[in-house]
């Protein structure tokens, strides 16, 4: 299940605005785009008159990577993982296990507390407030789908 973009979603977000919404500097955004970690999916902005345009999902990824960096995670290791991250619908948080080989997982909010009970150091990013601000609404699964997913 993917994200549902509502009528109010802003689908074409300029690079300076994307940086502001994600809580990162324009310089960080530019560096990450040049490294190929989080490139704009709407318009790459190549060439002299080029202007990078980001989607709301791109902004969520930028915000996640920014949060991880502010929390002490190595964005150099996690940047490519965040770029490849499939963003599911629903109430999810991003859970990062920090260690010699950081790994990034998407965890359902209701499972997060039990996951945090295990040993290790964790960073959690909650995308819900930014999703609302961007006009992204999670597709709401029916209770039948929830039961099937839990029993599978």
Describe it.
This protein has 152 residues and is α+β, with helices and mostly antiparallel strands. Helices cover 44% and strands 18% of the residues. The strands form three sheets. It has a three-stranded antiparallel β-sheet with strand order 5-4-6. Strands 1-7 form a two-stranded antiparallel ribbon. It has a two-stranded antiparallel ribbon with strand order 2-3. A hairpin with a 4-residue loop joins strand 4 and strand 5. Helix 1 packs across helix 2. The radius of gyration is 16 Å and the shape is globular. 27% of the residues are buried.
Which stretches are poorly predicted, pLDDT < 50 over at least 5 residues? Answer: 1-9, 139-152
Distance between the termini: 16 Å
> Helix/strand/pairing class, anyone?
alpha+beta
Helix content: 40-55%
* CATH topology (level 3) name: Multidrug-efflux Transporter Regulator, Chain: A, Domain 2
* Strand ordering within the main sheet: 5-4-6
Percent range for β-strand residues? 15-25%
Number of helices: 7
CA radius of gyration is 16 Å
Question: How many domains is the backbone divided into?
Answer: 1
Principal-axis shape equals globular
What assembly state would you assign to the polypeptide chains in this entry? single chain
- State the total count of DSSP E strands: 7
What is the H/E string?
A: EEHHEHHEEHEHEH
Biggest sheet details: 3 strands, antiparallel
Q: How does CATH name the architecture? A: Orthogonal Bundle
Mean pLDDT across all residues, rounded? 77
Name of the CATH first level: Mainly Alpha
